[in-house]
Amino acid sequence: MSTAEATVAGRPRPAGRLKQTSLLPGRQLRRRFAALAILGLLLAAGYLLWLRDSSVVEVRTVKVSGLSGADSGRIRSALEATARSMTTLHVDEAKLERAASAYPVVRAVEVRSDFPHGIRVHVLEHRPAALLVVGSRRVPIAGEGTVLSGLSVNADLPLIRISGALPARRIAGGGTLASVRVAGGVPSALRGRVGEIERERGKGVVASLDRGPKLIFGDGSRVAVKWAAAVRVLADPDAAGAAYVDVRIPERPAAGGLPVKTVTPLAPAGAPAPVSPAPAPAAPGQAQPSPPVDGAPTAPVDPAIAEGGEMPPASQLAPTPAPAAGGGATAPSPQP
Fold first, then answer.
1. How many CB atoms lie within 10 A of CB 118?
2. CB-based burial of residue 146 (10 Å sphere; 0-12 exposed, 13-18 middle, 19+ buried)?
3. Which terminus, N or C, of the chain has the lesser number of Cβ atoms within 10 Å?
4. Does domain 56-125 have CATH number 3.30.240.20?
5. Tens-binned pLDDT, residue by residue, of the chain (336 aa)
6. Domain ranges in the chain?
7. Do β-strands 244-246 and 214-218 pair in parallel, antiparallel, or remain unpaired?
8. Contact 183, 221 (CB under 8 A)
9. Which residue, among 163, 168, 165, 210, has the nearest Cα to 179 in the 3D structure?
């Protein structure tokens, strides 16, 4: 081998050729990722356009729970008919809510797919908070103002009397809505004890308790905080017998109409204590009376006994009367 051939054989390869060779695996990897992405898009399109709405996953069984009241049958039928137009891979919850919105008692629906052919619908109903009294009619109403026509109520609910026609769907606003909101916040500890909720001039919403005071709420704001303040005051033994509890400012509730307690007035600080008058001096020849022991009154001493005479028989002594009621003592009656 010549020197030239050895030089050519030992010469390193050009850098450009090495770089081009190292980039080949990266290009192949990117092409594979692109192919997988395209395949995924085709599968997603097939799912959206065919499988999701195909009869392979159509809804055949609908289970509805949570219903009560007179409209239960009609609500169930409406939800079942709407659900059977869907598939378990394409559940339209908004469509089910629109189907149930024709009935005021329905607050919301919860839907769960049961693959491959089932669907479960749970109905959340409004809880009645009070009874609207319009003439001789009594209609339950929810705490946010929805009129629950057709709902049977067995609970002892507060009464809210209104004048005029009964609203078709819900209370729009004003004082009646404030009263309804107060009724909707009644805590479980007082449920069944609120008799009537009305509005009084200068006080706003006032709730009357059975065997209890009136609760003054003012408006319908901060209802939960006001009820909590009322419960704290009612649980306080010092508030027993109150005629009303004012929670218009719940941070400073006030109980009124309590009986006034009278106490003995105290002397002002620094004033001298009252001094008992000194006893009058005894007459000449009469013994000085001894001071009372422990505050007990003493009778005058006969001079003959004081000078050393003998004690007369007990039959000749005048009886000492007993103290009168209230701790006072009466003076002894003179001897005959």
1. 15
2. buried
3. C
4. no
5. 555 454 445 555 555 554 555 545 677 788 888 888 888 887 776 666 666 777 888 999 999 999 987 889 999 999 999 999 999 988 999 999 999 988 989 999 999 999 899 999 999 999 999 999 998 889 999 999 999 987 878 778 999 999 888 888 888 888 899 999 999 999 999 999 999 999 999 999 999 999 899 999 999 999 999 999 999 999 999 999 999 999 999 999 999 987 655 444 444 445 555 555 555 555 555 555 544 444 444 444 444 443 444 444 444 444 444 333 344 433 444 443
6. 56-125, 128-256
7. parallel
8. no
9. 163
Compute, in degrees rounded to 10, the torsion defined by CA atoms 82, 84, 88, 94.
Answer: 0
- CATH number of the structural domain 128-256: 3.40.50
* pTM for this model (two decimals): 0.59
The edge-to-edge listing of strands for the beta sheet with 106-114 is 61-65, 118-125, 106-114
